[in-house]
């Protein structure tokens, strides 16, 4: 059967490359088409001119990015700097993503800074889970949390025990804010603990976010093994971490990776699928569409049989993520590799010196919708500079800054959201991506799981 399948994969992000690796492992030939010059999709390394080494009139300090990717985190020889298009965080429970990284040649102990569960909102709240079996590590961490009253700590513990007692399943979905209100989680507890967790996990405000999807994340990260709640901060850029290695793995097994090859159309002909690329046509027995939802809807819209799938994609709302990179003198560092801010514009700060050896480089992240979207990128950078000065007494001016805005970084994860299945109405066309049907919000693990599901469905299919 494997020899009869010929699979085209549209999109070289984490979903598409996960599918490619799984199929390559099964001896099924694959061709991956990626429209950009680098792999990774919405989790990619970005190669950009180094601001210090270029004329600032030609390369302004604030950019809206979609440039080339690169192979590492540090400045490349000459005039190029590698940054991620966003600061993604992996959890220990992301087992399939971590498994695939190792399969294609990664080393988890070297590729990540691994931290036990800890939430720090500078000067306001601190939770550090001790090395106890799950879920006792979290319960003990809550009981010892700084910045909460004893009454608030007990409320949080009772809430977690109630969720565990119901198996992290709700009889009907609701917003996170409604769930918190039902279980008596007051405003201060919400602002310091549950809201930052929800924003970090779902990239959706609590008044809109699905409580059930948040519970799915809490179930897998906090209730099984203590290591599942570990936080893994990548030392490599996100293209180098997995997609680039996956490409080499696939090519070594007879597959092809085609960069700067955007698909113009999909056509169903005599049981096969034809992909039009820059005036040429490629025929495949099966196709996995692993692009962003916006790009997927554009490709699938002309196919009448896929009307319901396209309608479902069109109904998705999206949430942004802004990342502000600030290059300070190399001696500048934060008290922790990752630290949150309480009721500030910047929600999370990442010290890239501690994480990846990029000394003095601070990445400030603003997730989900908010008033920050009304500001220019220069104004956002100034807000971040001011907050770093006020919170950490960093009086030095940054040498440069860059703002990366992903306007449609994730889907808006609302209650009871219909999400398209991996198997479409066409038996030989499948859909992969973090927005497709699954337990998780828009995460790397959700993307990887969708790609693996597509590959496994194809491996069981006999072409017509």
Largest sheet: 5 strands, parallel
The CATH topology of the largest domain is: FAD/NAD(P)-binding domain
Main structural class = alpha+beta
Number of strands: 20
Give the distance, in angstroms, between the N- and C-terminal Cα atoms: 12 Å
Helix content: 25-40%
Anisotropy-based shape: globular
Briefly, what CATH class of the largest domain? Alpha Beta
What is the average per-residue confidence, as pLDDT, rounded to a whole number? 91
Number of domains: 3
**Rg to the nearest angstrom?**
22 Å
Proportion of residues in extended strands: 15-25%
The CATH superfamily label of the largest domain reads: FAD/NAD(P)-binding domain
């Amino acid at each position: 059967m494997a020899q009869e399948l010929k699979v085209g994969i549209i999109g070289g992000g984490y979903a598409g490359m996960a599918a490619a690796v799984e199929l390559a492992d099964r001896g099924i030939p694959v061709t991956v088409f990626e429209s950009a010059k680098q792999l990774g999709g919405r989790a990619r390394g970005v190669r950009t001119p180094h601001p210090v080494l270029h004329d600032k009139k030609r390369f302004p300090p604030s950019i809206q990015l979609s440039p080339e990717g690169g192979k590492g985190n540090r400045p490349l020889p000459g005039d190029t700097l590698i940054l991620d298009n966003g600061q993604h965080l992996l959890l220990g429970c992301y087992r399939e993503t971590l498994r695939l990284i190792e399969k294609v040649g990664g080393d988890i102990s070297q590729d990540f800074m691994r931290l036990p569960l800890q939430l720090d909102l500078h000067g306001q709240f601190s939770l550090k889970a001790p090395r106890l079996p799950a879920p006792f590590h979290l319960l003990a961490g809550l009981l010892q949390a700084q910045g909460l009253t004893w009454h608030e700590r007990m409320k949080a513990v009772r809430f977690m025990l109630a969720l565990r007692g119901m198996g992290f399943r709700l009889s009907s979905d609701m917003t996170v804010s409604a769930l918190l209100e039902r279980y008596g989680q007051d405003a201060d507890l919400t602002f310091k603990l549950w809201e930052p967790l929800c924003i970090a996990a779902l990239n959706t405000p609590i008044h809109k976010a699905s409580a059930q999807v948040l519970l799915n994340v809490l179930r897998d990260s906090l209730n099984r093994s203590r290591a599942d709640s570990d936080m893994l901060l990548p030392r490599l850029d996100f293209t180098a971490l997995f997609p680039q290695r996956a490409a080499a793995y696939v090519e070594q097994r007879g597959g092809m990776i085609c960069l700067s090859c955007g698909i113009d159309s999909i056509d169903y002909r005599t049981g096969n699928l034809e992909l039009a690329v820059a005036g040429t046509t490629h025929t495949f027995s099966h196709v996995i569409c692993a692009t962003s939802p916006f790009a997927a809807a554009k490709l699938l819209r002309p196919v009448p049989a896929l009307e319901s799938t396209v309608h479902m994609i069109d109904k998705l709302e999206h949430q942004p993520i802004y990342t502000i990179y600030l290059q300070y003198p190399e001696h500048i560092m934060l008290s922790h590799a990752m630290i949150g801010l309480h009721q500030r514009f910047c929600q999370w700060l990442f010290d890239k010196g501690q994480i990846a050896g990029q000394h003095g480089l601070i990445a400030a992240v603003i997730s989900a919708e908010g008033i920050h979207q009304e500001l220019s990128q220069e104004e956002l950078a100034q807000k971040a500079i001011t907050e770093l000065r006020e919170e950490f007494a960093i009086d030095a001016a940054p040498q440069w800054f860059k703002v990366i805005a992903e306007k449609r970084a994730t889907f808006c994860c609302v209650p009871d959201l219909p999400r398209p299945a991996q198997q479409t109405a066409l038996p030989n066309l499948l859909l992969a991506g973090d927005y497709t049907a699954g337990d998780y919000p828009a995460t790397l693990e959700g993307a990887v799981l969708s790609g693996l599901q597509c590959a496994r469905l194809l491996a069981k299919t006999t072409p017509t």
